[in-house]
Design brief:
This protein is an alpha/beta fold. The chain is 42% helix and 16% strand. Helix 9 crosses helix 18, helix 14 crosses helix 15 and helix 19 runs parallel beside helix 22. The longest helix has 34 residues.
């Protein structure tokens, strides 16, 4: 009884200390009075998340390997479901049947000039109690590699990105008929395989060089956090920039009755076989290479001189998979809205891992669980959300965003109608708040960040993030002078992709990090032992993530007026337009300069002044691109954004009394459609699944974003006619978006009069 009383007293003190000041300003989208109520509930919410709970959840969820299709993956989903029901929440599991290849046979051998057989496995570490669960661990492999058995000379291609092949061309080296070896980094792994195949390679090997991911960075596991010599990065090589999700059901949910493609027609499976290896296995292969010494910026940290090849190294690579269909388990929790049940705030994090996955993804998933526990306690205290809240613990993310994509495709018609915002997280660690997403939500997310306390520095996480940016010269002026911290644009690589890029639902991606050393990504060593020794060891930043994500959910769910905002959006969009205009000028100038040098019979050695390089071929000079359609679209956007801001300022005057009395449902319905207006139904050139015209993963970057992608990539790929066409399309899209903002402004003006 004493224990209970002391706990209650402690909670009361915590709530008092967390209570907002009486003179706190109104929250965006709220009247002053409703802000006071909202801040009271938020303070109660932020006092609830418990670090010991986060630790306990992680220890349970990461106790065994839990990749999609595994027994423990299903067990985890069912355990979470039981927890959510125990907390009094409406929860269910939704399943999908997806293509998931797992290794049947893997082989990698150096057969000339000496013989070496790669181990292709990660040994257990005595200090790490779960690293020895070999029977349940997925072997080291790349999912969605095509089967293949090839023997060929080896060529080192640095990171294996398009620029590296341009360098090889200048060096007079072809990879046609060869097997390439690329180091992880600089781009997503699937791009390395795609580009190698486009250049005629027969196979691809990807290894973790210690310069990027190992002893060059710091002490290796188990002494430190970095990747040991036998550590291997598993990962999908699905061609996700074409479309993510189940390769056999593009655009539709992979439910039992779905029409499926034949395996041979699945365009997101690689065209050549690929295998990931450790730097211990890579070292004999690279050491056996001859030929030219690599350029300086191609050199890793292994103890020998790096050569490009081809030869005398010759390797044999064999990959064969079980091309099985597996069931995945999404755990879905719904808290119905009492006022606007058909407006959904969606929050998600995946629960599947490549192996034990404590950092990726359980560090984020446990924060989401603790958010749900806190919301369940608020519900018992009488809190009710105006809008419906949907929490999703996704399965199959690691293999290609399977669970979130299939769910979004299955429910696409409904989600286009009711989806307000999707808030994603993934891995989480010690450090600074990292936030990216739709710039219509930038001001909103800055507001949330100002109200969360950093557990280490005891200042707001917004202030700490600002100070970090001020410490970097490139970001200093912007961070000091701009009212809001800029959010990064989203490409792909996590579960926001289907919501933002395919459905046009405004999205956020949040998490903490930047202070820990990461070196066990997608390996057997990403487990509870590693995380509690080298990650967020006391789960303080796990608690901060729960506070941040939950506050954003609460604030969106109960806003009288949805807090989309367009001045930050147009400011950022202006930068993107200026970037593509500069890109076009720079590309044209570079071609003119190269052609001039060729006309004068001059070319310079690049990176290796002592070695003669082949000159590039003479190129056709591109035309001047007419950016007037985009400039006109931007002008329309700026006018309507300014109008909306004026109306909003009037509505928020006098404590937002107009917001309190107005009927805002029609306004909110129009605001929701503004992100949809940034999409086009036929999507991007050659990849119609991606419909958003401002954000998309790059065709040759994978995860990395390309803003205004249709225009930017046309210029990068020197498709000048297509660039002209896309400028017109994007310009019209911007004008249409301006019309949607104007409609929202006019509706708000009517509502608050």
């Amino acid at each position: 009884m004493k224990k209970v009383s002391r706990s209650a007293a402690f909670l009361s003190l915590a709530l008092l200390s967390a209570a907002p000041p009486a003179d706190s300003p109104a929250i965006a989208g709220y009247s002053l009075e409703s802000s006071r109520v909202e801040r009271d509930w938020e303070a109660k919410f932020r006092a609830i998340p418990n670090q010991q709970n986060l630790r306990d959840y992680m220890q349970r969820l990461s106790a065994r390997p839990h990749h999609v299709g595994s027994a423990y993956d299903k067990d985890n989903a069912e355990w979470m479901l039981a927890k959510f029901k125990e907390w009094g929440l409406d929860a269910k599991i939704e399943t999908f049947d997806v293509l998931f290849p797992s290794p049947k046979e893997r082989a990698l051998e150096l057969i000339e000039p000496t013989r070496f057989t790669a181990r292709l496995q990660e040994p257990a570490v005595a200090e790490d109690p779960t690293s020895n669960q070999h029977a349940e661990q997925l072997p080291t492999y790349n999912a969605y590699s095509i089967d293949g058995d090839v023997t060929a000379p080896l060529v080192y291609v640095n990171y294996g990105i398009p620029e590296d092949y341009e360098q090889l061309d200048r060096m007079g080296i072809s990879v046609k008929g060869a097997i390439v070896i690329a180091r992880y980094g600089a781009s997503w792994r699937g791009i390395k395989v795609k580009v190698a195949g486009e250049h005629g390679a027969l196979g691809c090997i990807i290894y973790s060089d210690p310069r990027d991911d190992g002893y060059y960075q710091g002490e290796v596991f188990p002494k430190g956090p970095y990747r040991p010599k036998d550590g291997v990065q598993r990962g999908s090589v699905m061609d996700m920039p074409v479309y993510p999700g189940d390769p056999l059901t593009p655009g539709v949910g992979a439910s039992p009755g779905a029409k499926r493609l034949a395996l041979k027609d699945a365009t997101t499976i690689t065209k050549i076989p690929v295998l990931p290896i450790s730097h211990a296995d890579a070292q004999p292969l690279l050491a056996a290479l001859g030929g030219r010494t690599v350029p300086e910026n191609w050199r890793g940290a292994l103890p020998f001189t790096y050569h490009v090849g081809p030869g005398p190294a010759k390797v044999h690579l064999k990959v064969q998979a079980n091309w099985d269909t597996k069931k995945l388990y999404n755990v879905i929790v719904k808290i119905p809205g009492v006022t606007f049940p058909d407006e959904w705030i969606i929050r998600g994090n995946h629960h599947d891992g490549w192996v034990n996955g404590a950092d990726d993804p359980i560090s984020g998933a446990v924060a989401v669980m603790e958010e749900l526990r806190a919301l369940s306690l608020l519900l018992k205290q009488g809190w009710k959300p105006k809008r419906t809240i949907v929490y999703c613990l996704w399965d199959g993310e690691e293999e290609g965003l399977l669970g979130s994509t299939e769910w979004a495709e299955e429910h696409s018609a409904e989600l286009r109608r009711v989806g307000v915002v999707y808030i994603n997280s993934d891995s989480n660690g010690r450090g600074f708040l990292q936030m990216g997403g739709s710039h219509t939500l930038e001001k909103f997310m800055n507001g949330v960040a100002r109200d969360i306390e950093d557990p280490e520095k005891k200042i707001s996480v917004w202030k700490r993030a600002q100070l970090q940016r001020i410490s970097h010269p490139a970001d200093r002026d912007d961070a000091r002078k701009r009212a809001d911290l800029r959010m990064g644009a989203l490409g792909s690589g996590s579960d926001f992709t289907a919501f933002l890029d395919h459905l046009g639902i405004a999205s956020l991606n949040i998490g903490y990090g930047g202070e820990g050393g990461g070196g066990v990504y997608h390996s057997v060593y990403d487990d509870f032992y590693w995380y509690t020794h080298f990650g967020d060891t006391d789960f303080a930043y796990g608690r901060a993530l729960a506070q941040t994500g939950g506050t954003a959910v609460l604030r969106l769910a109960n806003a009288e007026l949805l807090p989309y905002e367009f001045s930050d959006f147009t400011d950022t969009l202006k930068k993107y337009v200026e970037e593509i205009q500069k890109l076009a000028r720079d590309r044209r100038d570079a071609i003119l300069e190269r052609n001039k040098q060729l006309d004068e019979g001059f070319f310079a050695a690049i990176d290796n002044p002592s070695e003669k390089l082949l000159p590039p071929p003479r190129e056709e000079v591109p035309p001047y691109l007419n950016f007037a359609p985009i400039e006109n679209g931007m002008a329309a956007l700026n006018r309507t954004a300014d109008h909306y801001e004026r109306v909003l300022a009037d509505a928020a005057a006098n404590g937002g009394a107009a917001l309190a009395r107005a009927q805002l449902k029609a306004v909110n319905e129009k605001l929701i459609q503004i992100e949809r207006a940034l999409t086009l139904s036929d999507g991007l050139p050659n990849r119609p699944w991606f419909k958003h015209q401002i954000y998309a993963p790059g065709f040759y970057t994978g995860y990395g974003v390309k803003t205004i992608p249709a225009v930017r990539e046309s210029i990068e790929q020197k498709q000048w006619r297509e660039a002209d066409e896309q400028i017109v399309r994007v310009g019209k899209m911007l004008e249409n978006t301006g019309e949607h903002i104007e409609a929202a402004a006019s509706e708000l003006e009517r509502a608050v009069k």
